[in-house]
Design brief:
Layout: H1 2-37, H2 51-57, H3 63-69, E1 88-89, E2 101-102, E3 148-151, H4 166-170, E4 178-185, E5 191-198, H5 208-212, E6 220-223, H6 225-228, H7 242-245
Antiparallel strand pairs: 1-2, 3-6, 4-5
């Protein structure tokens, strides 16, 4: 009888320990998932679906990262040895969902491979190959939207008046994704600024400009497009753009009326008087 009671106590203790460990593991995993979800500034491979869809589709197989590091062009010309791959698979402590591919431009940017080896090997469709096909039905890395380069003017030495075009020269789409804008230096009166300007309709987010930036912390850096671009809103229409005008349908500008308390007054009621608050 005593042995039976001891066995029951041991069983209950073991069960409670197991339940406690399972609950603790669940809380830790939940906390990790929340942390990973709260770190949205992650750059994915070319052709990646929107982040939520990508995470649902990615099976964390690592084939894209393997194809990236093993590509024929990934060889150091000086040493003849293989270089680190652009794509890394997230592990614990990376603040990204474990097992998903990402890249950090300051460390290893995307080198814009013509054959885009990381995309065709994806077995789940998380990397959408059709989105990278051109009019000839060929893979075109220039159609990639990995992110968008952003220039921080206060730390870019070109805005100080120092001659620097490192990001411009590193860009694989020279004079298309990044151009240099001439501006007179009013401070000196005899020098000129050559300012880098990023064109969002062309930039692929490869990060070669970020890698090339000469400042200690890059003054040009790549962010996911949803975090680097503003959004005008569908209620604004470009009057000079025929395709954008089509969204307005039959509605004409004359039919749009905006009324305020001031618009109900005659101009003589408020012009040349004190400011109204």
């Amino acid at each position: 009888m005593a042995n039976s009671d001891n066995n029951r106590r041991k069983f209950m203790a073991t069960t409670l320990q197991s339940v406690g460990l399972a609950a603790l593991g669940g809380m830790l995993w939940s906390g990790y998932c929340d942390e990973a979800a709260a770190s949205p500034l992650v750059l994915r491979p070319p052709g990646a679906l929107p982040e939520k869809d990508f995470l649902d589709a990615c099976i964390k197989c690592g084939m894209c990262a393997e194809a990236c590091v093993n590509r024929e062009s990934n060889v150091d010309k000086e040493t003849g040895k293989q270089r680190p791959g652009t794509l890394q698979m997230a592990k614990g402590g990376d603040h990204r969902l474990i097992g998903t591919p990402f890249f950090t431009p300051r460390e290893v940017p995307c080198y814009m491979c013509d054959d885009i080896p990381c995309v065709p090997v994806c077995p789940s469709g998380a990397l959408d190959m059709p989105s990278l096909l051109n009019d000839k039905n060929e893979l075109d890395i220039n159609k990639a939207n990995m992110g968008l380069a952003v220039v921080h003017k206060e730390s870019c030495i070109a805005f100080w008046g120092l001659q620097c075009d490192a990001c411009y020269r590193a860009c694989p789409l020279l004079d298309e994704a990044i151009s240099l804008e001439y501006m007179k230096n009013e401070r000196t009166g005899k020098h000129a600024f050559l300012l880098p300007v990023v064109h969002s309709d062309v930039c692929t987010g490869c990060g070669l400009c970020e890698k090339a930036c000469v400042t200690e912390k890059p003054a040009i850096f790549v962010l996911p497009r949803e975090h680097s671009m503003g959004k005008v809103g569908s209620h604004y229409v470009k009057g000079w753009d025929i395709k954008d005008q089509e969204r307005a349908g039959e509605r004409k500008i004359e039919e749009i009326e905006t009324k305020t308390k001031r618009s109900e007054k005659a101009p003589a009621d408020y012009l040349n008087r004190e400011i109204e608050y």
